[in-house]
Specification:
This is Paired domain-containing protein. The chain is mostly helical. Helices cover 62% and strands 0% of the residues. It has one domain. α1 packs across α3 and α1 packs parallel to α4. It is globular and about 40 Å long.
Length: 111
């Protein structure tokens, strides 16, 4: 899904290796390299010449979003909720409330 793919360049820019990204997101190396190539070439995870990037609905989190949150918090353990919200918005195009982020952290056993 595009939600999952949008986390790949973020994790890569945070210093995660392709192997680590594949493990965190449960994806193959081929997909990771293809997405990174498109991101480098077009500045987006999808080829703008073939289809348009779709924005998801407002308040649902998919497994990739939970993986992204977990990775960001692991890399930046003292991050504030509003900063995490901004990262989700900018990097994954996920727009959720602070309460939803708080519940996600609780579900991930992160306090």
């Amino acid at each position: 899904s595009d939600d999952l793919k949008s986390c790949i360049p973020v994790l890569y820019s945070e210093g995660y290796s392709v192997k680590d990204i594949c493990h965190l997101l449960g994806i193959k190396k081929t997909l990771t390299y293809n997405v990174l190539n498109r991101y480098h070439r077009y500045g987006t995870i999808s080829n703008p010449n073939t289809y348009s990037y779709l924005v998801r609905g407002a308040c649902s989190l998919c497994p990739a979003d939970f993986s992204f949150i977990s990775a960001v918090v692991k890399h930046h353990p003292s991050i504030y909720l509003d900063e995490l919200k901004e990262q989700l918005s900018l990097q994954c195009n996920v727009h959720i409330s602070l309460a939803t982020i708080s519940r996600a952290l609780k579900k991930l056993s992160i306090t």
